[in-house]
């Protein structure tokens, strides 16, 4: 299924198609889970690189990409929702909203304190013209 229109979306749709094809080939290859998980990792890395682009926020890509990853993890019997601790995510999202409000009110000390708390919780924050992007820190 194609998502969106335009050159950015065309590339994204090509990547999704390639990812799904590689995943299916891995499953057809005697249920090669190591390769399938490797393909998932590569696709997630691609999604992260798209989010990091400063010239063009790609928030919609993340949502669409996560749906694809979640579906294919389900094929492997992995329930992404159960893996993610919803209480921590809810708390992080609430802190992100509080930080946005503090920034809006020019209370930068409070905004910095909240940013530091989110970092301690394992999240990165990216401020964009379209709003704050909150994502789990990746290990380098």
UniProtKB/TrEMBL annotation:
GO terms for molecular function: ATP binding; cysteine-tRNA ligase activity. InterPro entries: Cys-tRNA-synt_Ia_DALR, Cys-tRNA/MSH_ligase, CysS_C, tRNAsynth_Ia_anticodon-bd. Signal peptide: none annotated. One of its GO terms (biological process) is cysteinyl-tRNA aminoacylation. It is found in: Cytoplasm. SUPFAM superfamilies: Anticodon-binding domain of a subclass of class I aminoacyl-tRNA synthetases. Its main location: cytoplasm. GO terms for cellular component: cytosol. Residues 22-84 form the Cysteinyl-tRNA synthetase class Ia DALR domain. This is Cysteinyl-tRNA synthetase class Ia DALR domain-containing protein. It comes from marine sediment metagenome. The lineage of its organism: unclassified sequences, metagenomes, ecological metagenomes.
